[in-house]
Amino acid sequence: MSIETTSPARFLRERDGHEARVTYVELFFDLIYAFAVTQLSHRLVHDLSAVSALQTLILWFAVWLGWQYTCWVTNWFDPERIQVRLLLFAVMLIGMVMAASLPLAWGERGLVFAISYVAIQVGRSLVVLGFLGSRHALTANFRRICGWLVISGIAWIAGGLLDGTPRFACWAVAVLCEYVSPMFGFPLPILGRSSAADWRTTEGGHIAERCQAFVILALGESVLVTGGTLSDLAAWSAPAIIAFLVCFAGSVAMWWVYFDTSSSAGSHAISRASEPGQMAAYFHYVHVVLIAGVIVSAAADDLVILHPPEHISGSTAWLLLGGPAIYVVGNGLYKRVVYGSFPLSHWIGLALLALVVPFAFHTDLLMTGGLTTAVMIVVAAWESISRRSSARGVEAVSAE
Q1: Ramachandran category for residue 30: left, alpha or beta (phi over 0 → left; psi -120 to 50 → alpha)
Q2: Under a CB-based contact definition with an 8 Å cutoff, are residues 148 and 123 in contact?
């Protein structure tokens, strides 16, 4: 199906051949999700059990999916139009309630979380359908999206009314509905399914920049949490100062791994893709993993600064080693989409992290944090040198 309007729609972005820019209202909107990321990081610190980790994973997917679906809306609709801007502000308001309920989402605020989340997802989709009207070429696509969000919404609300394992099962089903359905074109009886042509007018550069903005937001929150933890210490001991420096160096290395070369390459790749909408979808699939690594690493940094000489246990080991490992895997998958292969530097980084595991149980949090930071620096340096050498080689061949 071609994306030509059969009926005029209101508030769409102009497609004039230029890349759609990220607006200030979109960046303002992201602040709600900065708050949500902090809430999830703190939740991990306060409960290191495997059950808590799985619960936090479900909540993180919900946070990401709420942001992701809104990101697609602002890819098509102009955030500078008052009506679209008001829609974003309404989502922000409800999103504040959702984020505030995250710490107790598996307890007494489960229904509050579910209702606010469903209000964001379904409410936004209904407003968009109102913007489009009944005869626009995008209407059928958004009807399918809305249909799947209603299905997942039922599971979210049902989970909010239940407790324990039934809640977990309902919310896991809801996450799968929202995460997997786009892979198959949101298929529904009568309404059919969407095709690649339905996403062909996607502004690839805009989607890439939105993902990059979320990464920098998550890394920024990690730095702020690190500084806040140091500030809250009653006495600044030498181990605490060293831990702070180690954690800051780790955040810089994580920034370097993602932003040194691959962020600009990602924008370029998605804008030149034959199916930019499909590649943009891949970006969303892999960034949820990548940013999860930032969240887990931020929680680990908190522990390292608070208790540098504490002996490693199973629960703290997965946090300190799991965060960097998840981040490296996410970056590797992202670069697989951008460059076509999983970088050798990232394989080496994962191997080094695996070697740290047995050693970690014979040392303390600060030493383990230092080792994982060293691994991230190796990955960042290797990747940077490798990409720059390849770029110089290409330039030399072109000059000949």
Answers
A1: alpha
A2: no
Residue 4 lies in a domain: no
pTM of the model: 0.89
Q: What is the CATH number of the domain that holds 211?
A: 1.20.1410
∠ CA 251-257-260, nearest 5°, is: 110
Say which DSSP state 310 is in.
P
Identify the pLDDT of residue 2: 37
- Domain identity same for 219 and 166: no
Our separate counts of H helices and E strands in the chain read 13, 0
- pLDDT (tens digit, 9 = 90+) per residue, 261-291? 766 676 677 767 666 667 777 888 899 999 9
- Residue ranges of the alpha helices (H) in 162-203? 164-180
Where is the domain boundary, 157, 179, 199?
Answer: 199
Q: What is the DSSP letter of 71?
A: H
**Could you tell me if 192 and 211 lie in one domain?**
no
**Residues with Cβ within 8 Å of residue 375, at least 6 apart in sequence:** 324, 349, 352, 353, 356
Residues 3, 201: contact at Cβ < 8 Å?
A: yes
Q: Which domain holds residue 294?
A: 204-399
CA 14 to chain CA centroid, nearest Å: 27
Examine the domain organization and report whether 259 and 330 are in the same domain.
yes
- The pLDDT tens digits for 6-36 are 455 667 777 655 566 788 899 999 989 888 9
Q: How far apart are CA 115 and CA 127, in angstroms?
A: 17
- Report how far residue 359's alpha carbon sits from residue 291's, in angstroms, rounded to the nearest whole number: 27
Domain count across the chain: 2
Residue 234 and residue 193 share a domain: no
Residue 155 lies in a domain: yes
- How many CA atoms are closer than 13 Å to the CA of 132, on its beta-carbon side? 23
Q: How far apart are CA 81 and CA 77, in angstroms?
A: 8
Boundary (domain end) residue, out of 199, 218, 239: 199
Query: At what angle are helices 314-339 and 262-272 packed, to 10 degrees?
Result: 40
Which positions ≥6 away from 22 have C-beta within 8 Å?
Answer: 206, 209, 210, 213
Is 229 part of a structural domain of the chain? yes
Our CA angle for 160, 162, 166, nearest 5°, is 110
